[in-house]
Every structure is written in structure tokens, then in C-alpha cells.
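pinned: reference chain
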Amino acid sequence: MTNHLISRIPAETMARVYQETLPKIQASVLTIGECCQTLQQAFDDSHNFHLDLELHHARYACDQEACDAIADRFKRAAWGALINKLGIRKLMSSKRAAELDAATCRQQRWRYRSDETQDDALPEITPETLYDVLAGMVSSADEFMHEAIHEEYDFWKPAETTPYKTNSDPFVLGRKVVKQWMVERGGANSRFSPVYANRRHLIALDNIFHRLDGQGVPEGYAGPLVDAINTCGADGQGETEFFRFRCFKNGNLHLWFKRLDLLEEFNTLAGRNRLPAAKTA
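pinned: its C-alpha cells
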């Protein structure tokens, strides 16, 4: 699986170009800083004369501290791009995927192995590191799958106080589930789209059912279910290989599971150990 993911993009080339280019960028920043200092010395009597560097709406003084900050920002952005292309996020539970996204968007530590003991900051980008990260992900794939199933079971299973009759059993998912605050529309004539905060649960559920069917993770960034919701008509209805759905203006999503054999397997893996004695008899 590692080789399959690596072969989808020139990962080694990307890492090598990153390694070669970043020092040039840092050197250029220091050169700009030296030039600015020369100008500032020439305009010493003008207290309002000041030069710095603006990058993605952040301002940096052109010194070594700025070089380090820019390098960190570039590294996190580069990891974000690599993760998207390699499909790493799709192996994870929605919680782990959210943590990974946070780590690539701001300074935050990221554990890319479940059993790692080394420093867990974002690693440097090298061809060797890419293989190391992918190997760690693949070796943890079963653990990630287990986490994802339990997490999505807890998210999608009906609450005991649910007002919807289709969610009458609070211990298993039935063939239809109604979930609030899942979709939205930008205006009267606009299309439906998943609510951003809960889109990750749609992606994770889709990934789970693909993997339960032995297909592996689906192609694309979001997956067929999110894509189908984004492209459904004004009536909010659509379906994929594993799901049928209807979106409502109040934000509710009605979701039907088409493969009841996979739904039974999902319930067994996620909920059997949580059922009360009366339910397991």
C-alpha cells in the first residue's frame, strides 16, 4: 500500500525540490534584510522609514528569526499539500484528521505514528521521511479503522431523546438515520452543501463503508457522498453506491444505508460491546 500511494505522485521529487528551494528562499530573505538595513541607515533621520516583508497577510522583519518563521510556515503548507495528494487523511478517523489539519495550519504537534517515541513535531520533508510517515500510517491502518468506526458509530447513532421515529433504537444504526445540522444552503436558489463542521463525518463514514466492502479508500479529496450532496438538485435528493440521502432546508439530512450487510457489520464492530444485556440476549 505504501508503494501504491507513493507512486501516485512524484513524492521524492517534491521533497527534493523543497529541500533545495527553501534555503534559497531563506537566503533571499536575509539579502532583502541587508538591503533594507542599508536603506534605513541612509534614511536614519526619517523615523517613519521602515521596511519589512509581507507574506500571506503576515509581516516579517527580514532577519534570521523571520527566516525560521517563514520556513516553519512553508513546511506546514508543504506537508498539507503532500498529505492531500498521498491520501493519508482518508486512513484516519475524523478526529485524527482534524488534528492533522490543525497541525498543518498552525504550530501544533502531530503524532504520525501510534507507537512513536520520538519528538512528535512535524518532521522535516525528505524522501526518507515520506516513506517513514507512510509506513507508519499503513502499519496503523487497522487501528485507525477501529477508531473511525467507533467514532462514527457514536456520532451517527440516535440519541435516546431523538424525536425521529426512524432513530428509535439508541443502540444500533438502522437502515435510515436522521441527523440535524448536517447540510446548508447559501440562498433560496443555491445548492445544498455539507455543514463544514460535520463534513468530516460524512467523509469518514463513506471511507468506512468503502473499506468494509474491500474497496479501499475512494478517490478524490472528499469522496462520493460529499460530492453527491454538493451536486444534488433543488429537491436535495441523491445517492451513491452505499447511501441514499435527502437534504432539507432546516439542515437535516436523511440518510439511508443501501448495503444492509455492511451496516450489520458496522454495528457489530462498533456497538456489540456496548449493548445492554437485554439487547444481546
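why pinned: Confidence is low (pLDDT under 50) at residues 1-8, 107-120, 275-281. The CA atoms of residues 114 and 140 lie 7 Å apart.
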